[in-house]
Model the fold of this input.
Amino acid sequence: MSSEKGNVARRRPQRHQNARAFKNDKYDTSARLKKINAKLHDGVCQHCKGILEWRVKFSKYKLLSKPKKW
Done:
């Protein structure tokens, strides 16, 4: 794509595509990761639930270090 203003149309297909899906437990088989994969995200809106599931799927999710205080 050119940096010229208004030229946003792509004229070729994507060059590289993944042959296999990402596996977040391929190399890391710790108890912490198993706990994260088993976690259910209840009590949140649909949008936030989708974000949390994406984070778990691609190993971006981090557990809270301390529980949240109300």
